[in-house]
Amino acid sequence: MNDSFFSTVTEVNSYYAGFIAADGNINKNHPNLTISLAEKDKKFLEKFLVNLDSNYPIRCYKSNGFPISSVIITSRQICNDLGKYFNITPNKSLVYVPPILEQPYLDCFIMGLIDGDGTIGFSSRKTCNDSLYISFVGTKDSCSLIKERFEEILGKETSNLF
Predict the structure, then answer these.
(1) d(CA 34, CA 42)
(2) CA-closest candidate to residue 111, choices 7, 17, 6, 9
């Protein structure tokens, strides 16, 4: 496995770091990164392992009757680099503050966040044509980052996310 995958910020690892910030877990007692997804998303884990040059196994099991695919990566360097470059630490769910990244890494990171904890779709309303929506659940700092970036791209204020 490439333990230094997150040692230098790149577009690819920024995307995965965003996803891990949303859906990953760093164990506070051991240098383990765990990503558990619905079994239908197993291909995402397979692609992640290819990018890591890893042959770690993907475990499939049921949790509360739901099929799950999970991988546990044991690497002190990966866990440390995720903390150092992307602010991903144990017990981050309620307190996560996204890193300050330059472009294009910021946009890649945001794509990972949205893939992990967001939804993109079309809404049909009687009062207007079909419209695109993006929904995201995360810390206030993560939501603010996404809102500010979309406002910058669109050049106007977006709907209130809070």
Answers:
(1) 14
(2) 17
Q: What residue type is assigned to position 38 of the chain?
A: A
Residue 116 has pLDDT above 80, yes or no: yes
Among the residues of the chain, which ranges form H helices?
11-23, 42-51, 76-86, 105-117, 140-154
For the segment 16-26, what is each residue's pLDDT rounded down to a tens digit? Answer: 999 999 999 99
Length of the chain as a residue count: 162
C-alpha distances in angstroms, 87 versus 53, 56, 97, 109? 23, 24, 7, 12
pTM attached to this predicted model: 0.91
d(CA 37, CA 61): 11
Question: Which DSSP state fits 142?
Answer: H
Q: Are 115 and 138 within 8 A, CB to CB?
A: no
Radius of gyration of the chain (CA): 17
d(CA 59, CA 75): 18
